[in-house]
Amino acid sequence: MNDSYIHNLIVNSETFDILSADSEFYNFMGERLYFTFEKFIGESDLELFKYKVLSKDSSYFIIKMYSQIGTLLDYIMKISPGPNKSQIAIKCVEMNKLIDEHMQLIKHQSVDYNVLNLYNDKILVYYPDKMDVVIYEPTIDGRDYEVISLEDFSKRIPGDSNRLITSLKNGESSFEYIFDDDNSEDLVQVRGMSIYNNGEFLRATGFIHKNTRAITTTTNKPMIDSLTGTLTKNEITNYAVKQIDIEHREGTTIAIIDIDYFKNVNDSLGHLKGDEVLRSISDIIKQQVGNAGIVGRFGGDEFFVVLHNGYNEEKTREILRSLKNIVNATYAPNDEGKPVVSLSIGCACYPKDADNYTDLFTIADYCLYVAKDLGRNRYIIYTPARLKSLEEIKQDSATNHDLNIDGRNNLNLSEVLCKLFAKLTDDEEVGIQEVLDAFSYIQNFQRVIIYDENARPVHIASRNNFDREVIEACSSYILDEDLNSIYQYDNVLLINNISILNNHAPAVYEPLKKQGVQAFIHIKFKDKYNHRYILSIEATKIRITWDTNNIHNYRLMAKICAYVINKYGL
Question: Where's the GGDEF domain (predicted)?
């Protein structure tokens, strides 16, 4: 069954608000995005639906649902408990599509049998719970099969089959063996992989191929990550490079996915729970990507997706939005001690955004940083008009390398600040401009400025072009009394949208607008001579919702500036 035909939703059990849904169900909703779920149910079946919810009956039932044009369609539906007590999980599929898929499956099986027959192959499936092996082989009428014990299967393999039997019993991620048949000129090749679901070994499947001695082993068989069932880092990387740099498949899109706050899961709930979360989220990613692409694990809490038709940006957006929403609903904040995580995703498309894999990865990785810095739990599809150019991103990477700061997103802001402080306390001379450059890169702030007590911008760091004359001409707003009266956090001021200053500090709004500032943080600090300064962190190209949990880190940034000014001057 094509996974895209099966809709999976998380719904509030009382209000029936749709908390998350797969991308295909968003297509089904069309312009009805703000409908609660019961509005999709046919009036005659609404009572049945509510009864199933109240009775917690998880059996399948048939129900009618309205299409976008108002016609009633028959659906098969199942309602189960959701991730939290106030939620339900709904699985449904349209009956007509289910029947069409079944007919298509029969057609595909017929082709598979012909291919098996052509190459003299048999399919094997091993079930660990019964230790049985089912062998399928093609026949004139279609296929035949037999069920035999693992012991009998081993006797049919020529030569020493102990290693193959061990691979099947242990559920090895992939296996391949070639056996020499002493009674004929044939070699027997057995190749396959093990299938897991949430860490449980379900079955091993593969094929048995007989041929002449021309058989050679496949050295580049796909390697599977044993925990998540996705491709390994090398496999998914090689696949992406082949699609982009070798075969030049236009529209190939890559998405880097990072699990937010995953370290907290391991630290507070243990690594076994962490592994459970990784398996669950990998299943969500695989299900939502479906036939649209390939999924791999980069290691730790990071996944990598290669999508085949990225020119259809709306389809890409639907997939990424569904991933984010489903994970967010599944691991939402709760009072039950369950893990709380979300996804940050960076995405870029070949050749629209870059003409080679290395540059495309650099851009997608940068988009992931942007998603993190904007507060996590979001996806960023590269848009040159709103984000940095490839040249600017590369320049940032070079700066990052010079500072000896880890460029991967596993470092949080606190760790980066500690690294800077360590560099300074080891008596390595670092100028204030270099510190500001580091801040503008690490936090992906579009601009960082230090103003002195006369409102003069003494140092500016930015990874985008800026007009220094405009900044200097508009800098007097720093001294505005209305602005200084609204500092919220003991010498720290956070403004998420400068339009609110129209009411609180009207003389400040226009200068900020001329400078291109959309949001900013101001932190006041002093040097050892009691000279006053303001560290201004500014968002220009992208509006940012500042994280109030990072107030202590913003203060620490100002303390680092004070330390450097005290030691090395301006």
Answer: 250-384
Separation between Cα atoms, residue 377 and residue 442, nearest integer Å:
19
Residues 166, 168, 173, 176: is their CA dihedral positive or negative?
positive
CB 124 within 8 A of CB 135: yes
pLDDT digit string (tens) for 213-267?
444 444 444 577 888 888 888 888 888 998 899 889 899 999 999 999 888 888 8
pTM score: 0.51
Specify whether 325 is located in the same domain as 449: no
Number of other residues whose CB lies within 10 A of the CB of residue 43: 9
Other C-beta atoms closer than 10 Å to the C-beta of 71 total: 9
Q: Residue 188 sits in a domain of what CATH number? A: 3.30.450.20
> What is the domain range of residue 542?
413-568
Q: Within a domain: residue 101?
A: no
d(CA 274, CA 126): 29
Q: Residue 103 domain-assigned? A: no
396 located within any domain: no
Q: What does residue 108 show for φ and ψ, rounded to 5 degrees?
A: -65, -40
The Cα 339–Cα 84 span in angstroms is: 11
Same domain, residue pair 363 and 243? yes
> Which residue do the tokens 């995005």 mark?
33
- Give CA–CA dist 207/191, Å, rounded: 6
Q: Is there a single domain that holds both residue 201 and residue 314? A: no
Kindly give the pairing relationship between strand 200-211 and strand 253-260.
unpaired
Q: What is the mean pLDDT of residues 522-529?
A: 93
Residue with tokens 């608000």: 17
If asked whether residues 375 and 469 sit together in one domain, one would say no
As a whole number of angstroms, the distance between CA 324 and CA 303 comes to 13
Query: Which pair of tokens denotes residue 485?
Result: 């009266």
Give the phi and the psi of residue 436 in degrees, each rounded to 5. Answer: -65, -40
Q: Is 140 exposed, middle or buried (0-12, 13-18, 19+ CB in 10 A)?
A: exposed
Q: What is the DSSP string of 87-146?
A: EEEEEEEEHHHHHHHHHHHHHHHHHHHHHHHHTTEEEEEEETTTTEEEEEEEETTEEEEE
Neighbours of 54 (CB within 10 A): 9
